[in-house]
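User: I'm preparing a small set of examples for a lab meeting where we compare how different chains pack in three dimensions. I only have the primary sequence for this one, and I'd like the structure in token form so I can line it up with the others. Please keep the answer compact; I'll paste it straight into my notes.
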Amino acid sequence: MPRRRTAAGLPAACHPLPAAAVTLFAAALAAAAGRGPLGSAVTAAAVAAGQLSVGWCNDRADLRRDLATGRRDKPLVAGTATPAAVTRAAALALLLCVPLSLAAGPLAGAVHLVGVAAAWAYNLRLKATAVSWLPYAVAFGLLPAFVTLGLPGAPWPPGWLTAAAALLGAGAHFANVLPDIEDDRATGVLGLPQRLGARWSAAFAGTLVLGSTAALVLGPPGRATAYGWGLLGATAVALLLTCRRPGRLPFRAVLAVAAADVLLLLLRLGALETPPLPA
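Assistant: Understood. Below is the structure token output for the 279-residue chain.
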């Protein structure tokens, strides 16, 4: 019976939705950058391993606070996964992430591992500080570099792409904590969103994600497409409507905007000369 509970709870404890979203983004970006099927697969595997390690680490680090607030939606609190199993899973995923990251090249691998380390630092310490947004900005901002540094010549990504990814990551942080701000405050987690409160955090989430979309629309060379202008306007309206509501709706809106941004990015890259990403 314990093995069945562990098998059922482990997938839910890794934060599967954001993990899958980030992995798919990395795979799409690698394919658009010309990494090829093998390179794209290795990139996706490395990112997936990193995201799994971060997700499991997050739930394990939050166990005491989740128990205090009665978070029955968390597998560790509900008893569908054990702390030991989640700890082992996080460690194994982190160990796998190292060779998978380095398979893209020493510099590319080092950059990705810095991003994963930033996410672990958030889980273990920084989420309760005023710089809680910084690990998200660093981890997301370095993801395009992990992709491009694996290309021949190891080029760095253009600044507009790094800025768009970093803004999206910081915005996702503000949106993600909105449903739990009061519980976080009660258990001593005082990151920047908790210090600002739900109203200001929602405003920051919308502004940062809108800035990310604007960087993708206006940053690349050439004229912005009709899709880009339409997405920018739709993003502004959608975030204005959703980021004023409580619950997980703002976070889901951020994920939806991220998916639309990926499509915009692929369209823009397709219009650039080969190689597509280096400026």
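A couple of notes for your slides: The radius of gyration is 19 Å. Confidence is low (pLDDT under 50) at residues 272-279.

User: Perfect, thanks.
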